[in-house]
Specification:
homodimer; 197 residues; mainly alpha; Tetracycline Repressor, domain 2; DNA-binding; HTH_TetR (chains A, B); Tscrpt_reg_YsiA_C (chains A, B); HTH-type_Tx_Regulator (chains A, B); DNA binding (chains A, B); Transcriptional regulator (chains A, B)
DNA sequence: CTACAATTTGATCGACCGATCAATTTTTTA
DNA sequence: TAAAAAATTGATCGGTCGATCAAATTGTAG
């Protein structure tokens, strides 16, 4: 296993096949054989490019998080006020979940099922170096708005952030709701502004 | 397998062992052998009292949901205004997650990992007959408050309910937060009242 | 062209799992 | 108390999985 172009392309191909398989059968029923079949390669090749199953899952999770973060961040930076950034964050996040449904499902499958070497699942892990996560982006927007007077200073950014992320993730788990995503996004923005504006 | 007292007690014992095992190793690494060992019985006895592994999980999920629902409902009915009921709902829900942490973890493990005969996980299922779920209780409280004038009528109960449940479940996944549960509950109640009061 | 390195295959191994079942023990029934 | 029913054991079976590896193929450097 090296870092050649071929190896890098192959690894991404396997990661993509892993995402497809996760969405179709879930982590619970996923096997390396199924991923290999999806990627139209032999099972041994996966072991050649990834140390073991957990290593493949770690790379797949990293891929999914990076894509989502990149999409949302690119939308947020287009705005130049905290209010507009907040709106962009909420809408981009909800939009991504709808347009990249397969990725969202794969992400959920890994986060709630995969466990590290010590048996700790991702959803129970302490966010070690939350240097650059989605939550940090959101908290920074809230702080910026407080500092420049767009938002009131009478709320704790961490709690409002939980509030917003909770509402977004709640929607992530119920995409089949009777309420269209667009409307949900608009209403959520309205509510948040009523809270902090 | 019958419905005798012995069988009923044995089934509950197995369900409790299942909850313990879920919390310790997760659904992913759970086996009927481990559940049997936890319950200090033979493996065959589980198959005697439950049709198969999925049947055990269904009973365990039903047990967990019923316990949680019962606790929250008992707290809510003590209050006699929509405002107080809403406060009781939020605080009871958050309190239950902290005092019954093991049950919360087991619930998450089943909902996000177990799949029915058709391969559909619980978290992706349409809530068939949501006759009596937590969400219904919450929506009913919101409707009651709107009808008797405690709350404004300018919001959609379904969306605010998602908002509230999202904030509660977000906390469920991050119990190790720097913010104490009590404070989180108080702030959440304040925010919701600011939204709808 | 040649030799070496990287890549890929597919068979195979040991381990574990869910489910089954004959045999045994305990409880209930009459 | 004797017979029947219920409950329980533990060994066992077929199946699947993750990982390994010798062998084959492809790519690359000299």
């Amino acid at each position: 296993m090296t870092d050649s172009f071929i190896a890098e392309a192959r690894r991404e191909q396997i990661v993509l096949a892993c995402i497809d398989t996760l969405e179709e059968v879930g982590y619970h029923n996923l096997s390396l054989t199924k991923v290999a079949k999806k990627a139209r390669i032999s099972t041994g090749l996966i072991s050649y490019h990834f140390h073991d199953k957990l290593d493949l899952m770690n790379h797949t999770l990293q891929f999914l998080v990076a894509k989502q973060l990149d999409f949302i961040r690119r939308n947020v930076v287009l705005s130049h006020s905290a209010t507009k950034k907040l709106e962009a964050f909420i809408k981009a996040h909800l939009t991504y979940q709808e347009t990249h449904y397969k990725h969202t499902i794969a992400l959920i499958e890994i986060v709630f099922t995969a466990r590290n070497e010590n048996g700790v699942p991702y959803y129970r892990m302490e966010d070690e170096q939350e240097e650059d996560g989605l939550r940090t982006i959101l908290v920074d927007i809230l702080k910026e708005g407080q500092q420049n007077g767009e938002f009131t200073s009478s709320f704790q950014t961490e709690i409002v952030a939980s509030f917003i992320i909770g509402a977004i993730e709640e929607r992530m788990l119920k995409p089949n709701s009777s309420i269209p995503m667009e409307q949900y996004a608009v209403e959520l923005v309205k509510m948040v502004m009523k809270l902090i504006g």
